[in-house]
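We modelled the chain as a single entity of 597 amino acids. Its sequence is:
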Amino acid sequence: MSKNKYIDEFHNGDEELTIVDLDANDEEVREESETVSDDGVETESEAELDSKDSEDVDGPEKSEDDEDDLLESEEDEEDFDEYDDEEDYDEEPAEEEEYEEDDSNDEASYEDVESDDMSDDEDDTKKSGIGKKILIVLISIVGVVAAIYLAGIAFFFFNFMPGTHINGTDCSYKSTGKVKGMLEDQVDSYVLTLKERNDVTETIQGSDVDLKFVSADSVSELARVMNPLLWPVKIYEFYRFGDTTSHEIHAEVSFDESKLDTAMKSLKCMDKESMIPPKDSYPALDGALYKPHPEEPGTTIDEPAFKKALAEAITGTYDVLDMDAAECYINPKLTVDSQEVKDECEKFNKYVGLTITYHFGDETEVLDGSVTGTWMTFNEDKVPEINQDAIKAWVADFAARHDTAGATRTFTAANGAQAQVTGGTYGWRIDQQAEIDQINAMFNSLESQDREPIYSQTAASHGATDWGNTYIEVSIANQHVWYVQDGQVVFEADVVTGLPTAKRATTKGVWTILEKKQGKVLRGEKLPDGSYEYETPVSYWLRVTYTGIGFHDASWQPWFGGDRYTYAGSHGCINMSYSTVQQLYGMVAVGTPVIIY
């Protein structure tokens, strides 16, 4: 019975296949070795292999894997030899059948391994090829991008970035040469506008001063400063966000200084007759306080400063010269911010800050700096000098507004009718000289005052009816008299007043009882011979005026009231019957107000 085993050995690099055949009779053992390489398949005998092994002793060292394979081969041979020595042949057919099955499995396994190895090699080869292609594409893309980037650097080294504005002109992608040409054109058409005070403008042409273009090296300097290495970023920012950058570049120019002098002197602002001199700030009354009055700049030119500013503006090819900002004018020495002016205001306010608060019953009036400030002038030592005439004028007006003696009053008469009275001596009267003295005393002491005015004459109360609620009222039209006490009529009677002529009419107004006397002789005007126009004795006399008008009994009058006064009137007195005047005499006192209207 024969058995065959195949032992496959695969090695990396050259794949080495060793096949060992054993026959049933152990007649011979052959070893065939096939070496599979990239060049083909070569079959050699065992003897040749041995000879080669012997020749390779001094050659390269075998790997540990090769040695393990060799040991396995030898062990397999020993196993086969032991199998040949066995004498149990009864089970040979079964073993042979089993062996054949194993042999077929081994062959199938070999084919599968060989197929898998070949498939892996092909996959690796395909993957390797795809990777190489991707790598080549990536390298190509990087090369193209790098070439574009370098080209951009080269371009923007001599051209301006997008969004670049120079002197108000869009210079995107323009070369430095074109921009220099643009500046040269600007010089040829150059005009300098002078912005003067009071919204006045004048111009100087470049041709007026023989302006010439020299160079514009600053253009190249600006191009280098813009950093061409960042050109992709600049392009993105411009087209994505609309970013722009503005630059002012002034070309190098030359001009004729003598012609500049001529052009400057021909300007209207240089006309000395039309120049307005500056005025310093000073303390000025504003309301009730002194405040720094704004300085007045004027239009007087500072010629050296103006000429220097003109030269700098033309050299820089500026479009506008703001003469105020360039300090081309002679300015005031003192401004509203000057400490000297502020100190003066503070000192002056010590005087105008003084007040007098006047009381008129429930009403008040305040004299403050808005008035007193107008009375003051300050000498060189900043000491105030008070204008006395101004004080007198103010006090006279003050008295006219508040004096009630002789003023017109409107009131409700005892009979309920509305009446009006003007004149008389009764009422409030301010002592004007005393008030002037009090005002000067306030400035000397620097102390404010809170008081009533100083009066030369007073009344019962303040207000329109300053006679109060106790008074005598005489109505000429009604030929009647009332005595009102504490607001109530306690007496009344008919009367006869003066004949309504220029000399004999009863004087209207508000008066007072000046005198009470019994047994009085009334006399008229004194005649040239020393006698009197008349002499009439009366029992009761109540004087109202110092000119001789008063209340008295008149026994010669047959009756009182009505229109008798129009044809039999008195010389101005108020005639009453004996009984009525006697009663009134006993009720009133000296000083009682008398209203005759």
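As a brief sanity check on the tokenised model: The longest helix spans residues 92-156. The CA atoms of residues 290 and 346 lie 8 Å apart.
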